[in-house]
Q: What sequence folds into this?
């Protein structure tokens, strides 16, 4: 406890907390294009650079496609790199997202999650983030501003770990986190320096010229994709290891692929990802007060998907309710589908709730109500909270 | 006896690559790399050159190559050069090698952005006047009247004047070049090498299958493009316009060969009417009137 009290704490909105972490990670090249609700992060980074607090090149780029292309080039040439975006910006980056994932270069992108047009919406949901789930990127998502700060630092380390070498996307809910001020405990710069040593990866060597990303014939293409799958599997234990190391430095115990909130002895569980996990926790406490043995399993790492953890924690639940802020239209809640497939063969009833699209408000009460309906046998297999 | 054969040189771009017979690209790259030297990175978007540059089992280039998505090369090059400069490398030359489609169409915003930021890169557009890698579809740089698979009756619009558009970005160096005038091309690459900031070289690159001519005629046709005035050789250094090589002698119309001599060797122009040929001739003469104004300035 004493260790926690000694930590420096700042009052930061989510965008500034991430920018602060980026500054401490010391990337050499950044390219960011403005989009709500990410923009204030870009502005903060520009401030750090103009004041000399961060010695980096900030490329004032003309589009998101080019933003990712630029940091891709810089990453290939050995720089630690960063970008941030949201919604349309992430979609516009789409081609380069796959490009960077396929080539397996270390880089970090923060995604201030936001709904996708049409219709226009600047408010939060996870449709943008989830749309990049097959791009060979590690995807992690924060619950609160503290986590957004912590995960940003961890993202650089994970991305550059030689057992992984892969881009990492750090999602955090637009407005709900980007524009909300919280007390954030930050690491000292020297602690970040030892957690995140200088980057080693570089593909441009004039004495040993290679072609980066050429054509692959079918056998080779298939093999490269298989290697990526294996690296994703390998990443699970590496991520856990890096998160545990971070815990030791921060003095705060909270990390892992998933977070189990009162789910060890629960009979019913919510599964969530992102900011509303906090609301779900409140709901769990209230349900427990009513005598319902509820719990929550929060997914922190979405890719690689923590299938084993889900099995471990949910295998004997009487009911699982997965809350989704993103939909695969014509199929269902994306997280729900993944949880179902992880529990395949076990007799655990899984219910899907689609809610909060385009910023539609969701509160602890909504979680409570759905759980009560489940227990009273009134919950449909898929429910939209309209 | 041509001068070139007397110059002993070690090829920087290996023979035995996947280019078509008569394709000027390997030779153009050879000269480029020789002139720029070993500390050169090539950034290459989706194009014929992607194929020419080999696959995961090997490549013909003697300098590092970074392949790019179709629209991304100027941005990838921007990132590479920023990273190299950050790591203290002051002299490596990051060079985009891109087709006309990547340059004038899908990658145009990216190119314009990098030029506006005056990124320290050399951008070379090898212009074969269509999307050749996907099988001869028109681009904005296909000339008026030319047949392509998507303009079976001939393209209706004029060629986008890209070198002039690039000059409007106020970048330090813009030049046109041709494989038929290798010393002129070489000199321009050499000059570009010495300059910092965004440099743009536009190479007309005749393509035997795409332009429908015999693969033995590549240089002949490249030469005619210059001699007829279709492809003026010039450079614009810090805003100052200068004709180079034989183009210096072409201000006077009577020194220019009639455009028909260039057009008649190419199957892609075989369906041109007399009227259309006349219109093309007029547009060339008009361009030279504008060039006259630029030379005066
Ligand atoms: C986003 C995208 N759209 C389309 C393609 C297909 N494609 C590959 S190369 C090419 C044409 C390239 O034309 P150009 O830039 O003129 O180069 P060339 O092939 O003529 O050398 C096209 C359309 C692609 N690779 N990426
Ligand atoms: S299609 Fe034309 S440009 Fe492409 S490789 Fe063949 S000759 Fe060269």
A:
């Amino acid at each position: 406890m004493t260790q926690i009290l000694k930590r420096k704490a700042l009052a930061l909105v989510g965008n500034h907390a991430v920018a602060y972490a980026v500054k401490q990670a010391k990337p050499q090249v950044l390219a960011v294009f403005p989009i709500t609700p990410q923009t204030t992060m870009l502005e903060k980074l520009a401030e750090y650079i103009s004041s000399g607090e961060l010695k980096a090149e900030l490329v004032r780029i003309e589009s998101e496609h080019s933003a990712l292309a630029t940091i891709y080039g810089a990453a290939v040439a050995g720089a630690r790199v960063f970008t941030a975006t949201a919604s349309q910006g992430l979609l516009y980056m789409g081609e380069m997202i796959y490009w960077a994932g396929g080539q397996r270069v270390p880089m970090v992108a923060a995604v201030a999650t936001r709904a996708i047009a049409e219709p226009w919406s600047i408010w939060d949901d996870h449709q943008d983030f989830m749309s990049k789930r097959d791009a060979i990127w590690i995807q992690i998502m924060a619950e609160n501003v503290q986590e957004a700060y912590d995960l940003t630092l961890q993202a650089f380390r994970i991305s550059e770990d030689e057992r992984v070498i892969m881009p990492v996307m750090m999602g955090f809910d637009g407005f709900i986190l980007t524009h909300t001020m919280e007390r954030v405990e930050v690491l000292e710069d020297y602690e970040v320096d030892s957690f995140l040593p200088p980057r080693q990866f570089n593909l441009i060597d004039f004495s040993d010229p290679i072609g980066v990303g050429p054509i692959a014939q079918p056998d080779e293409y298939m093999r490269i994709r298989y290697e990526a799958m294996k690296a994703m599997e390998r990443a699970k234990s590496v991520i856990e290891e890096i998160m545990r190391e971070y815990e030791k430095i921060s003095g705060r115990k909270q990390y892992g692929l998933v977070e189990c909130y009162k789910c060890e002895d629960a009979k019913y569980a919510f599964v969530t990802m992102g900011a509303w996990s906090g609301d779900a926790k409140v709901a769990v406490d209230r349900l427990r007060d009513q005598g319902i043995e509820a719990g929550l399993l929060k997914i922190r790492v979405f890719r690689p998907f923590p299938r084993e953890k889900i099995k471990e924690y949910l295998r004997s639940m009487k009911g699982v309710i997965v809350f989704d802020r993103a939909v695969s239209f014509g199929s269902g809640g994306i997280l729900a589908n993944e949880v179902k497939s992880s529990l395949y063969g076990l007799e655990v009833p899984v219910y899907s709730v689609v809610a909060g699209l385009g910023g539609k408000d969701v509160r602890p009460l909504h979680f409570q109500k759905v759980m009560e309906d489940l227990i009273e046998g009134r919950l449909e297999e898929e429910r939209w909270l309209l | 006896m041509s001068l070139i054969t007397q110059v002993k040189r070690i090829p920087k771009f290996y023979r035995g690559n996947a280019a078509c017979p008569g394709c000027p690209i390997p030779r153009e790259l050879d000269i480029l790399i020789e002139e720029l030297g070993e500390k050169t990175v090539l950034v290459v978007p989706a194009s014929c050159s992607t194929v020419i540059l080999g696959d995961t089992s090997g490549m013909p280039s003697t300098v590092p190559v970074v392949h790019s998505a179709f629209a991304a090369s100027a941005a990838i090059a921007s990132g590479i050069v920023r990273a190299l400069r950050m790591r203290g490398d002051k002299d490596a030359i990051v060079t985009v090698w891109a087709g006309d489609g990547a340059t004038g169409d899908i990658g145009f915003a990216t190119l314009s952005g990098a030029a506006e930021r005056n990124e320290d890169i050399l951008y070379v557009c090898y212009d074969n006047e269509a999307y050749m890698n996907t099988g001869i579809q028109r681009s904005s740089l296909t000339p008026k009247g030319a047949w392509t698979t998507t303009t079976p009756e001939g393209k209706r619009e004029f060629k986008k004047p890209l070198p002039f558009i690039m000059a409007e970005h106020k970048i330090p160096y813009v030049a046109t070049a041709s494989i038929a005038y290798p010393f002129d091309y070489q000199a321009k690459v050499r000059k570009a090498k010495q300059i910092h900031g965004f440099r743009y070289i536009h190479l007309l690159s005749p393509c035997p299958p795409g332009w429908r001519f015999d693969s033995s005629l590549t240089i002949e046709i490249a030469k005619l493009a210059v001699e007829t005035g279709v492809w003026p050789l010039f450079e614009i250094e810090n805003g100052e316009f200068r004709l180079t090589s034989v183009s210096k002698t072409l201000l006077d119309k009577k020194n220019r060969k009639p455009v028909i001599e260039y057009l008649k060797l190419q199957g892609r122009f075989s369906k041109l009417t007399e009227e259309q040929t006349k219109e093309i001739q007029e547009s060339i003469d008009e361009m030279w009137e504008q060039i006259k104004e630029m030379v005066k300035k």
Summary: The radius of gyration of chain B is 18 Å. The interface with chain A takes residues 38-39, 41, 43, 50-51, 53-57, 59, 61-69, 71-87, 92, 109-110, 112-113, 116-117 of chain B (CB under 8 Å).
